[in-house]
Amino acid sequence: MSVNVTSTSPVFGSFRLPPSVKGAPRFRMAVRSNVVSVNAPILTKLQQECATPLPVLRHVAGAMTADMRAGLAVDGGSDLKMILSYVDSLPTGNERGLFYALDLGGTNFRVLRVQLGGNEERVQATEFEQVSIPQELMFGTSEELFDFIASGLAKFAEKEGGIFHLPHGRQRETGFTFSFPVKQTSIDSGILIKWTKGFAVSGTAGKDVVACLNEAMQRQRLDMRVSALVNDAVATLAGARYWDDDVTLAVILGTGTNACYVERVDAIPKLQGHKSSSGKTIINTEWGAFSKGLPLTMFDRDMDAASINPGEQIFEKTISGMYLGEIVRRVLLKMAEAGGLFGKAVPEKLSMPFVLRTPDICAMQQDDSEDLQAVESILYDVAGVESNLNARKIVTEVCDTIVKRGSRLAGAGIVGILQKMEEDSKGVIFGKRTVVAMDGGLYENYPHYRTYLQEAVNELLGTEISKNIVIEHTKDGSGIGAALLASANSKYDHDY
Ligand code: BGC
After folding, report:
1. What range does the record give for the signal peptide (predicted)?
2. Any atom of ligand 1 within 6 Å of the Cβ of 232
């Protein structure tokens, strides 16, 4: 049995397609015959600068492999932090009991409880709620943010009942998925290095985020113990491995991006004295910070300069859901200003940062109507833009260019990690079925992105090897994964 309870709060910033385009306003625009000729050179230049032919992909994959090694050799050795997760063993299926998971990673947070029934019954029931995080909390104080989260968690815990059963005298335990760069200090503690994905909460960086949550839970009089602090990529890997032993790598492609994988402890020079009974551990690469060899444009550089973390998270800013729509907006604005793409005047709304979101460009790219109706109505609804057919065609080309670059580079990143693992243990990755567990709204909801990513992986690996590499979407794996890791690190004995 599985029970899902969702809250009615809107999912802020989620990757949903806009409502139907039926009834969209129809415009009779005077066709500016020079729309195409003036903008063609801008488009051509963009396409050239964003191109990702095989040599570029190879270079990026190679640089990713090299950066991984440099980051494993010494702390600060490369853009990639290669963070030790303290998760040394992955779920086996034997996990039993009631566990919670709390997931803070983007514009909403999720709470979940799961009743685990061991190898026979596996996941007996799950319940979850999702609450959107008010925008002002993303720029507020640490205390405000953690109070808000702890209060949501406390309300959720109060509703526990039915099949969900906590043995008498036991404290509730939760996994805490915190999807920002954290320097783990143990399985249940870690220091926030910096916020990403548009968060600018004061007073958290440099602090132990579990302590912040514990203090907030105390203020809410919620008696719950955080038994595992994990990144969302790590939780996804654990959740996917619960069902499939061939999973060795997990990737998040959503608002932000990241990847983690199973590494041999003896292949991590910077780790001295870390004991792992399995001889393995999960490394959180924090690959969003990667930056080598990426084909970037002035639009990327300008967006980065205007961001709250200039010079940081360059890979993330090129491939992830938070930024793709914004890059497209910047290109369109330039075309409107320099090439009169939308008529003589530059539509005012188009100057607003982040007004065009990645779900909008996804919907536009999926428009296969002859007169590009959906493109027309989205441009109008979202950016206040009136467009003729020529302009709309150019807009879809721009979307395609930016999305193709991002997805193919993501594919190169995946191959970079696989290559590293294969180099260290010949045949272990390419010589057998290897599963890449994938989660995140961008991958889940953007068909073109998925296709281009897979194409890049195939091009890089060739037909034979790519048959062995399965990229599998593991929806909500991270929630269950965090609960499973909470169970594995429970303070109680496992035989109840
Ligand atoms: C964070 C990662 C996280 C990723 C996906 C990035 O911005 O730095 O820790 O895993 O987003 O949520």
Report:
1. none
2. yes
